[in-house]
Amino acid sequence: MDIFHLFLIAFSLILVIFIFVMINQIKKLKRKNLVIQSIKKISDKLPEMGHRMDFIKLIGSTLKEITHSKEFVYFSYNEKMKILVPIYAESPYAKQILEIRLKIGEGFTGKVARERKPGILNFANEKKGSIHIPGTPHEKNSLLAIPMIFNGSLLGVILQVKYGNKIFNEEDLALSKIFVNTVASFLYTKNLLYGMRNSVVQLIISFVKNVEYRDAYTAGHSIRVGHFAEIIARGMGLMEREILIAKIGGFLHDIGKIAVEDKILKEKSPLDDEDWIKIKTHPEVGAEMISKFEFLKEVVPCIWFHHKHYDGFGYPSYPVKGKDIPICGRIVAVADAIDAITTTRPGHPARSLSQAFEELIRNSGSQFDPEVVEAAIKNKKEIERYVRKEFDVEDEENYRDFEKIL
Predict the structure, then answer these.
(1) pLDDT tens digits for 1-60?
(2) 311 assigned to some structural domain
(3) b or e along 246-268 (b: 16 or more beta carbons within 10 Å of the residue's beta carbon)?
(4) Percent helix, strand and coil across the chain, each to the nearest 5
(5) Which site in 49, 157, 259, 388 is 20 to 30 Å from 267, CA atoms measured?
(6) Are 172 and 316 in a shared domain?
């Protein structure tokens, strides 16, 4: 083989290596550009994202795109309890994951939180210190965890997962770290907003409790109506967000009664015309109260229209009827009627659920939306679980769904 052919072979090898290096550099550059574009995307979308969970979902989908991970979990750090609480999981096993609680230092994620340093644990299932979550399969998995820190405070830990022989590398770690450190300030802002909203919700819940205590005949009424509304909305095939709004609307539908005098709420004999005028203001008063809070604006129609009849009668006098009445208002109207009929009230002894359904059918198309009535009847067994069920209005578990709207 002459010198020319040797030179040609050597040149070809150098060219192949150069092309290989350039392709890798281009891939790295693309991934870095993806991180930059993702940060810009989140920054642009931040003002329109009303809910903290929307923001966390966007972080998850972005990281999965950057690292090609299969699962994403966000653990929020509860400083008071010194534990990590998973509040969002993109995984086939999300239900099992969301039930776990990790102490600081417990497992790989807990260790990352304690040391406040990102880390990789490839083939975690084969390593000591890795925790298996009950109800999930024993299979090969690799983990990448990043602590989310802002102003020296631990906000939480982001965990990414790959399965099989796919592993994380140092570039995955570096890019994830750059992205997470940049968006940590955004999440901190969202957490502050969440805290303020949570304070508002606690105040609103205290109003609901106040109404429940003031009217002995309707104790637990709002909670039952919330459950009935949720069952009916789900039976109608509504989206999860609409189901949540209907349930919270059921909880809050009578909040306007906070402005009604005790003597009217506790009156055992039939109300006179003057008192009826006062009590009929509670949907508008309640809607006006809740409308002051932007993050609860979707709930307002549930409150405002829960005494509006399908044929346009009822109250308030706002000129709307049929399908033009917001769906959550039509659902809460039926849920409210079910509880009113099946519980004892002044001059109205409790009747059975079957009798309540007969009443709904008689007034279907006039007072109630036929579609909503049909959904209620089809889900009789589910509704029956809550009929006349007594609730402790002080039990915070009854109001847990409010967290989902924050």
Answers:
(1) 556 455 445 545 554 454 444 445 444 445 545 555 655 555 555 445 456 677 788 888
(2) yes
(3) bbbbbbbbbbbbbebeeebbeee
(4) 60, 10, 30
(5) 388
(6) no
